[in-house]
Amino acid sequence: MCTSRPIGFVGSPYHDTANIPKGLGAKHAAEGVLKILPELEPGLTDIEGFSHLIVLWEFDRSQGFELIGTPPCDNRPHGVFATRSPRRPNPIGLTIVELLRREGPSLHVRGLDMLDGTSILDIKPYLTGIPTEVIRRGWLAEAEAGKQ
Amino acid sequence: MCTSRPIGFVGSPYHDTANIPKGLGAKHAAEGVLKILPELEPGLTDIEGFSHLIVLWEFDRSQGFELIGTPPCDNRPHGVFATRSPRRPNPIGLTIVELLRREGPSLHVRGLDMLDGTSILDIKPYLTGIPTEVIRRGWLAEAEAGKQ
């Protein structure tokens, strides 16, 4: 068992999951703040040098999980580990955000898709991307192709 | 508090952290197996279509954390959230691996940097990369430039 406690909380414009863009072509351009606990602020030293951050957070308003589910962007069911569904065995979410600026323990970022008040579990620098041309995106690419 | 249980375990050639490539220019080309619990196998449905996976795992042999530390690839200290240090407030690791093939509940992958037996917390499809030209990598880029 691995027990995590929040390192901070998300300040987001989203107060209801219905307002978060989902599905094919959803753009996550919302700006907000990652409010890190003041006692952990030294852990942010030098983070300003990174343009993008990986945020791990808790799907704290999601209950239970399902191994097979139909995502909002397709009409076919897929395994939970082949989707970003919130209803996962361990309800950990992952979002890559653009760091706009830091003010003490607060990181102003763009690209949020979490609800206001969401617990943050970890922040890591985003270091390298897989070149776009080698990424295969399985059912998601098929769903996108079908919608065109 | 967020409590996670393993969804499976890593079969890795690394049995000692000393053998895992670290620091500047470290290449993670090790092959191994993500052994998912048989009862969760339905959650892998359609995962074969993705070339790369995000693996969240537990630094289960790491004790405690430090907010400021000096990583193996630099001689200057940095905040823990600006590094990939295992000594984090929540000991969650993240690795992007290439999916080679699936055999039932076992995912054969390339690019491991975890120890053999490491607990896996989640697997997500890798969907999009940030274009390399817009990624800024702060102290790490400086450390690399200094070594040339």
Q: What would you say about this model in short?
A:
Chain A has one helix spanning 138-147, and strands at residues 2-4, 8-11, 30-36, 52-58, 68-69, 78-79, 92-103, 106-112, 119-125.
Structural features, described:
The structure is a homodimer of 148-residue chains. Helix content of chain A is 7%, strand content 34%. The radius of gyration of chain A is 16 Å and the shape is globular. In chain A, the strands form two sheets. A six-stranded antiparallel β-barrel of chain A has the order 2-3-8-7-4-9. The termini of chain A are far apart. Chain A has 148 residues and is mainly β. Chain A is built from one helix and nine strands. The first copy, chain A, has one helix spanning 138-147; strands at residues 2-4, 8-11, 30-36, 52-58, 68-69, 78-79, 92-103, 106-112, 119-125. At the A-B interface, strand 1, strand 4, strand 6, strand 7 and strand 9 of A face strand 1, strand 4, strand 6, strand 7 and strand 9 of B.
